[in-house]
Amino acid sequence: MTRHKISLEEFHRMVEAGVFPEDLRLELVEGDLVEMSPIGPKHAAIVRRLTTRFAPLATRGEALLSVQNPLVVGSSELYPDLALLRPDPESYASRHPQGQDALLVVEVADTSLRYDLQVKLPLYAQAGVPEVWVVDLEGKRVLVHRKPEGGGYREAEALGPGARLSFHGVEIPAEELL
Prior knowledge:
Strand content: 25-35%
Strand order of the largest sheet: 3-6-7-8-9-10
Low-confidence stretches: none
């Protein structure tokens, strides 16, 4: 079996040409197209909660909220559940945000925990995303990763019920995400 890798540019041309159905959820991971699972109700509810909690940062102009939109990390194009981006809307009109534009990335893992931790997290680290939260719905914990170095993070902690997450003055009880 022969595998054919595609570039980010080829992927964008294919999307623009309408090669894929509009409702197909795809990520480009180092040249491979990966079909994402449909989003369940609990997953969607958590993303809405996060969006509401981080909205004040957007209102104050401290960050842009990007919900399930493209983030280019190296030669990959991922679709994190939520990303807080540096407030530079003009440049995002002509290009997708890149890893160095992200302040925080959040992935909600219902069935995707292994993929989020083993595939996406190292890509975020390599791209210099300073902080990544992985909400592990099954394990009832939020895995917080800070200080990227190479393909990993120097700081990692698991927060469960009773803990509070904090980012740029926004406090979120862990229970709200579990």
